[in-house]
Amino acid sequence: MKSLSQQQRLHQVNTEQLFENYRSSLSHAASYQYGMRWKTVRSTEYLFRDKDRRGNGKSLGPRSAETDALLAAFTAGRNVAQERLRLITEKIQEQARLNKALRLNRVPRVVARVLRELDQAGLHDSFTVIGTQALYAYEAVAGAHFLLELLASGDVDLLYDARQKMTVVSEKLDGEGLLGLLKKADKTFECVRENGYRAANAGQFMIDLVIAPRGMQDAASVTFAKDDLVATEVPGLQWLLNSPKLDAVAIDEDGWPVPMRVPDPRAFALHKAWLSGLLDREPLKKPRDLAQARSVAKLVIDEMPHLPFESTLTSLHGDVRNMLPMLLQSSI
Fold first, then answer.
1. What is the pLDDT of residues 262-283, one digit of tens each?
2. Is there a contact between 47 and 67 (Cβ–Cβ < 8 Å)?
């Protein structure tokens, strides 16, 4: 693990600040996305405000001085919003070049595109990045870089909180499901198998949709559209689901900011240590699990003193919390 230089830290912070402005500008511009138009009904023109790409919307009344003014104000507002977005995008592009020069560009491009699409759809808080890819968020917050061998991965796990209303998520996905969103990030994404939980792109990078185990009364499949991914239950994920979350802005291979929502790093480290001790865990994964657990624990101890391991994470099962002495000992 290597700490960032002061110059790198400065540009990491600058990137986070620019991205917050970009997010705000993007949201403002998106409010004008579907536009206004005149629609003739029985020889009378009505001002119509579109609400989605299928042409659904609302009439704002027949043509008059008032509706003419509404359209003029809307058009002016849209122009201002688009110009603001253009300017902040140029600033981020400049920052991206600096980020690459300073070797801050870490997150795989495909992961970054998926996470930005989720963010733009208003679903940042609905999906938590777990597994290896979460390490990029921890190092961005702590101001350090892990060894590359800890980060290499050909997949990303998205943990969905199945306690939310799926209809709300489906609406935000515009009826196209999670697969539709993945295709916006990379058009080559397809479900690996029908009614499966995994999608893969042409480069065989995989996205897994996972949920924590549910009660017997929750038998309905978790999916957001027809022919979409269907979430699979994974034992132990209830601890990550219920743990506090950390929101970070990491930087992708192109130098662009990436919004990431991940579990509390202490919960991540303890969960990974627990995984490494499971008898039925794949033998090849156990040493990597433990190495990641120890590295994240050391990062927390060295760079995140505001997150003491000694404070109990009540969301974690006793078997997971019992891994703490071993982690603390190995991180000294």
1. 999 999 999 999 899 889 999 9
2. yes
Alpha-helix residue ranges (DSSP H) falling in the chain:
6-30, 65-101, 109-120, 135-142, 148-151, 166-172, 177-185, 237-242, 265-276, 286-303, 318-321, 324-330
CA angle 302, 308, 313 (to 5 degrees): 135
Strands 206-211 and 198-200: antiparallel
Render pLDDT for 72-89 as a digit per residue (tens, 0 to 9): 999 999 999 999 999 999
C-alpha 230: how far from its chain's center?
18
For residue 289, what are the contacts with CB-CB under 8 A and spacing of at least 6?
Answer: 272, 273, 275, 276, 281
Ranges of each domain in the chain: 2-101, 264-332
pTM of structure: 0.88
- List of residues 6+ apart from 142 with CB closer than 8 A: 299, 300, 302, 303, 304
Q: Tokens for 261, please give them.
A: 């929502």
Which tokens go with 167? Answer: 């209809």
Q: Across the strands, what pairs with 209?
A: 158
Distance in Å from the first CA to the final CA of the chain: 14
For residue 34, the SS3 value is: coil
H helix and E strand count, the chain: 12, 13
Q: 94-120 as b/e, with b when 16 or more CB fall inside 10 Å?
A: ebbeebbebebbbbbbbbbbbbbbbbb
C-alpha to C-alpha distances, 222 to 3, 82, 180, 294, 308, nearest whole angstrom: 41, 37, 16, 33, 35
Closest listed residue to residue 14, CA positions, set 299, 249, 285: 249
- Residues 2, 97: contact at Cβ < 8 Å? no
Tokens in use for 21?
């402005």
In tens, the pLDDT along 200-235 reads: 999 999 999 999 998 766 778 999 999 999 999 999
What are the phi and psi torsion angles at 15 (to 5°)?
-65, -45
